[in-house]
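## tool: complex_structure
## caller: assistant
## args:
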Amino acid sequence: MGSLQVINLLLVIVWARQDYVTTFLFQAVSLFTMLTEGEVIISKEGDEVSLPCNFILENFSKFHNPILWHKHQRGEVTRVNMGGNVLSPFRATKRLHLAFRESSPRYSLELSLSDISLQDSGNYSCVIRGPGNDVIGQVTHYIFVRAAVEKLFFMDYTKPGGQEVSSGGILTMTDGQPFQFACVSIGGYPPPDITIYADQDNITGLFTFERLTQLVGAKAMKLIVSEIVASNEMYTPSRADDGIRLKCHAEVVDAPLISCQATEAELGQRNAYIKCFIEAKPALKTIFWNLDAEGTSLIPGNIVNDMWTIVIVREKFLNPITDQDATHVDVHLYMRIVTEESFRDYVICAVNAIDASTQKVSLIQKAKKQETTIEVKRKQPVIRFVHRNNDSLDTQPLVEETKYSVTSSQSTGTASSWLVACVLLLTWLT
Ligand SMILES: *[C@@H]1O[C@H](CO)[C@@H](O)[C@H](O)[C@H]1NC(C)=O
Ligand SMILES: *[C@@H]1O[C@H](CO)[C@@H](O)[C@H](O)[C@H]1NC(C)=O
Ligand SMILES: *[C@@H]1O[C@H](CO)[C@@H](O)[C@H](O)[C@H]1NC(C)=O
Ligand SMILES: *[C@@H]1O[C@H](CO)[C@@H](O)[C@H](O)[C@H]1NC(C)=O
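## result:
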């Protein structure tokens, strides 16, 4: 590793210029090198996460060089360990484990968390101290345990005390009169990106954002709840705005979500395909298939063992407003001719900036039909549309609300004053 080379180099210099370099070594290095770099870890509930803390320290002693892990949750710092023991309140969870390894002059105290829960979100730092209790090195890892957006709604501040308006509701504004309202998102971790649209127009720029975080629960095991209020104090509607659909969209980053459906085919069938649907935010970087147990891989554009794959950006089904990137795609795995060996599992792998996801999908032999049957009807994979306004799970492939109510405008007593009705359409992706 780089740091070892540095040390070797220093030792060479020591050998060459002993008198001068000894002091240099002593001061600048005391022969300590942190080998671990801080990582940002975005995990989901149930995951297992290992936090490394590897370093080189000449003359390391457990007594004089305590290695301490700390958990930080917004200014609240809690010590995790004393030597190799996990301290309370972490001990009671039985989910935190420490592993000390030594191979002088290299040492490591790895902290691992199993069955990750939302309360585990936080910054974890590993601090190594010297004889005078001075910090001689440290590294911090950032754990984000993903949480879905719990609630998303508009607030109408022109109503006394403010009134919540949920999806399908109506905001009533008066032509020419400033209107004060906001889109509020509660939950979601890491905090979601909020985009606000008036029909197709992205009007996010007209809103001011306030981002709050609340910590709920017992010390060191707090739930971090993010709340985002995007408000517009002076939205001045005109007659042209009548009937506009306002939409607030909240998205939490995640590894790609893949949904595939086992497909039936017949022996000898030509150009049979398996279909998967992938949703990714941030957008996909790579898609490939593992075709067999040997790990033969197939990327779009190649033909391997008479198989090829096609990626179709699913514009038709996209939210018409947010279709700018290929975050919703159909992936087809074609095989020129179905043989006995074709009936097996295939693995698709999709990668975005957050993580890689894999999904196994099988080609199943269709039950024998009568000899006279010529036409082969393939089962079409089912595309699931899920109403996700009240959703706490994140296993569904597509999040798209398709219903919204339509309102009619009404003129009030005076001719110049119009009621402007806006239909709210709220969706979010997790
Ligand atoms: C390590 O210990 C040896 C022997 O006790 C000593 O000579 C040396 O100076 C020490 N090195 C450092 C960097 O403290
Ligand atoms: C983690 O550290 C970063 C950078 O110092 C800070 O902005 C963030 O609030 C910390 N997160 C928590 C949960 O304490
Ligand atoms: C919407 O507008 C905001 C602010 O102008 C911009 O940061 C954001 O990237 C836009 N989003 C989309 C999806 O165009
Ligand atoms: C969301 O769904 C759960 C269970 O289906 C229900 O208990 C809860 O009241 C719902 N929340 C809202 C805001 O509709």
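## assistant note: The CA atoms of residues 178 and 236 lie 4 Å apart. Residues 195, 202, 204-205, 322 surround 2-acetamido-2-deoxy-beta-D-glucopyranose (ligand 3) (CB under 6 Å). Handing back to user.
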